[in-house]
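FW: tagging you since you asked about this chain on Friday. Here's the raw sequence from the shared folder, copied in full. Didn't touch anything.
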Amino acid sequence: MKYFPYLRGKQFELIALRDMCSFYEQKDIISPIIEPIKQVNSTLLKTIDCLVQNTVNFNIILNPKCGEVSSENYDRLILDVINKLDGYDNYQPTFIINEQVNLKRIISIIKDRGLENISLVITAQPRNESDFKALLDSTSIRYAILYDDSSIRRLSRNIRPLGTELVILADRFNLKEKNADYVNPSDEFFSDDHLFFEKEGYSGYGDYITIGNNYNEGGFLPYAVAIHLTYLDGPENIFRIHHFVSDSNDDNSDVPGKVAEALSKLVPFIDERKMNTDACRQLRQIYHDESYPGLGSIKKLSILNHLQLVYNLFSAK
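HL: got it, structure written out here
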């Protein structure tokens, strides 16, 4: 059983992975997918160091489709990552496959760099079927991570005979236009993929955690603050998500006050359910200290909470 959380290389998403190492003792449960949005920088390097030091398996995308690297030649990213990970074999060089990607170039990179043990994140049907077959034949592919779409799932017919492990990837976060919109409904179903992926022939499942697949640079002050927290519910341990939204949402002033308003709803909720992940303990402390660590840190704790919930669930089996 393995979980593949998809994170883009934003600062606090990477820090969440570093914080995950504090409780990550069973190394075969979580295999993060990292899509760098910038060329290799200190935050990414520190995260890679932490994952390596804790012998965590991970997938790092070498042809990103979001952020500044996507519009540049990504040869520098490939070289920096390969050099950094020289001597560490518990990771997968990973490529996004969609209808725009140049499959011949991907094959060339794999051959020129001597890459093995590849992961493919297939987000759309490749345009050229023969080039895709050539890619499958060109190297050893450990994981084929298929976006949850019927046209993409059909590709498993060509991939499964290769002995490649199949992973299903889905966006389970119900994105709203504005943070204030999360008030209704404030609580909703999130996912039960962990209950069914094995029955459907997959070795693992992945999602975009409490972020969603939609990418934006961010950087603006919100009118409303929304804290998204997943939790396990019922005898089958279904994942649900609760949105804790601030009240004073008429303008973008006093963001620390808005965070305090959201936390004043969150803390009684997690206390009632006796939620005690590392993230929940930190959220309680922030609330009781009346401190403000910044919106990035709050987002990090939302991510970290979900990672630990999945880890605790799988490690108990």
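FW: The first strand starts at residue 2 and ends at 8.
HL: agreed, and The radius of gyration is 20 Å.
FW: great, closing this out.
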